[in-house]
Amino acid sequence: MRAQFVLSEIGVGLRRNLTMTIAVVVSVALSLALFGGSLLMRDQVNNMKGYWYDKVNVSIFLCNKADAESVAKCAKGAVTAQQKKDIEADLKKLDVVQTVSYESADEAFKHYKEQFGSSPMAGSITPDQMQESFRVKLKDPEKFAVVATAFAGRDGVQSVQDQKGILENLFGLLNGMNMAAILVMLVMLIVALMLIVNTVRVSAFSRRRETGIMRLVGASSFYIQAPFIMEAAFAGLMGGVAAAGFLVVGRYFMIDHGLDLAHKLNLINFIGWDAVLAKLPLVLAASVLMPALAAFFALRKYLKV
């Protein structure tokens, strides 16, 4: 009988404040969708870091004849055969180095043609203008400074470049976008909480006569508060279900179908469905607990029961 009463009161409250309930559902859905999206973005960035950092190389570019005339570091002339042997031998001695591979000027020119053959400048580039290089695979991509310190000012070395630095700019941009999403999520979350509190207070005010009678007959505080808390929790749960739907549809549409980013951007290792499904229970739990706690604290002050 008590359970039936509580459920009936929930239905009455939701119908009386239908407009505000819809606003609560929408705001909770948007804020939690952004919350789940930011968690997935963080997983995506970490996944990309793990994937790309494992493929990062340090490139040691060697001086050629053209560099000897225009680059101060190559003022002593193009790299010699003995210097190349010494550089390769010293690289292999370093504990942080996993593998060392040599790329000749002809190989560099071939790779350039494959990647930029349609460029207007491609026709003006000749093999002798390309630089020989050593491509160094590190055991730990964070140890670039060890190689840079040892070889940056060495005779025959034009420059030492770390591909990780290029990736850091990309990951910095992605992290910035993620922080922006979190900021918007926090704003939407505050709006949702304010709507929940106002909805609960309006509902409590419209039923103040009933709650007064319940106090007089000795009803407990929890028994009086339960319908209001469950109204907020139910509205939040509807918003949470909508947010979970947004995440599933977004993953399906953007990566698997629709935009089909998984095939168009096949160089990116996208997160799988397991990452998305792992976030759904958290989103649903937050959608129930957040409104319920907001309603509980609002009622403690408002009803004073």
TrEMBL record:
Bilayer-crossing regions: 21-41, 179-200, 232-255, 275-299
Coiled-coil portions: none
Subcellular location: Cell membrane
Limits of the ABC3 transporter permease C-terminal domain: 183-301
Chief localization: membrane
Keywords, ordered alphabetically: Cell cycle, Cell division, Cell membrane, Membrane, Transmembrane, Transmembrane helix
Function: Part of the ABC transporter FtsEX involved in cellular division.
Quaternary data: Forms a membrane-associated complex with FtsE.
Name of the protein this chain belongs to: Cell division protein FtsX
Naturally occurring in which organism (per UniProt): Streptomyces mauvecolor
Organism phylogeny: Bacteria, Bacillati, Actinomycetota, Actinomycetes, Kitasatosporales
